[in-house]
Amino acid sequence: MSRFVLTLAVVPLLALLTGACASTGAVPRPFPSPGGSTTSAPQPDSAGTFPPSPRAGDADAAAESAALTSTALALRGTPYRTGGTDPESGFDCSGFTQYVFARNGLALPREVRDQYRVGDTVKPEEVAAGDLLFFTTTAPGPTHVGIALGGDAFIHAPSSTGVVRVEHLSAPYWSRRFLAAHRIN
Predict the structure, then answer these.
(1) How many angstroms separate the CA atoms of 20 and 110, rounded?
(2) Known catalytic residue: 156?
(3) Higher pLDDT among residues 161 and 92, named by residue
(4) Is 21 among the catalytic positions?
(5) Is the pLDDT of residue 51 over 50?
(6) Out of 21, 93, 168, 182, which one is annotated catalytic?
(7) Which CATH number fits domain 20-31+42-183: 3.10.310.40, 1.20.1530.20, 3.90.1720.10, 3.30.565.10?
(8) Is the pTM here over 0.85, yes or no?
């Protein structure tokens, strides 16, 4: 009887731990670390920001993209925390994206899989600053999310051993795991 009760307690816990990063803190292996990649991080301009790649022909969208990326970049170095949703205690990946978008007047669901269901899908060659980038890391389907900065760069809250940081979408780890890009309007 006690083995049955233990199984009932362990199975849901294991299911929870193997879901999306927003609720689990599961660390994909191998997970890239700062300086561990052969590609270097993009460099900010003289003002310390990454210039966004504007969305085609829309000044309002370009301004929104700049605001989103500016908010996200201001959070670089914030520690990762499973279930984290604010800069004081830390972020997980979807807590980070939800926070950044909320600071710019755009509501996002809390979990990666729910964020994946909103917005318009964007072709990889049309990704612009402010788009959500989804990856499959710890399980099939969307399990990680970041924010495009323009060009090849994106920012995210990577793992329990990391901090909010900028990475390259073309890095082998991320390019192999890229799932989709969505634009939130």
Answers:
(1) 11
(2) yes
(3) 92
(4) no
(5) no
(6) 93
(7) 3.90.1720.10
(8) no
